[in-house]
Amino acid sequence: MIKDLKGLSRFKYDGHAVLTGKSDHPWQDCDYILKRFDRAEKDARKKYLKFIIKWMNQGRRPELTGGGLLRSVGGGHH
Length: 78
Known about the structure:
mainly alpha
């Protein structure tokens, strides 16, 4: 489990480090995600990181954890 932003940047099985420009996977297309933040790559990377920090600061949210398909169809709530 990734516990902080530093851990996320080191986790090699996601694209976060590539999206922030800290790593390069030639097979990973970052443009699709980055263009949702800004047209200019440098600004897009900054805005992406700001977005990630904002959401990480919210901590673990029960509506976004566990359940998989059951959660998708609105089940699992008691």
